[in-house]
Amino acid sequence: MYYRFSRGLRDVEDLLAARGIVVSYEAIRAWVEKFGPQIAKRVRAARPRRADKWHLDEVVIMINGVRHWLWRAVDKNGEVLDILMQTRRNARAAQRFILRLIARWGSPASS
Length: 111
What we know:
Layout: H1 9-18, H2 25-46, E1 54-63, E2 66-75, E3 80-86, H3 91-105
Helix pairs in contact: 1-2
C-alpha cells in the first residue's frame, strides 16, 4: 500500500489495525526498507509499457503571485513521462525538455 498508493506509514498502520492486525508504523518502515526495492520492481514491471505516441501540455499557473510554466509529457495511455516547471517561458527550455524526454524514453512514433 505504501508504494502502490499515496499512503503514509501511519495510514497503513491504521488500515491494518482496522483488519485486526496490530503493528507499529516503525515496523512498517522497517518492512518497507527491507522489502521495498523488490516491491517497487514488481510494481514497475506490472505497469504498461511506454506508448509510442506522446502529448505535450503547457499550463500557466500562479504560485504566490508569480507565474510559472508547467510542461507535461504524457503518452497515449495517460502515463506521465516527465514534468518541467519554471518561472521563465522560452523555446530553449522547451527544446531541452524534449531532448531530455528523448534521451530517457527514446523517440516517439512519427505520425
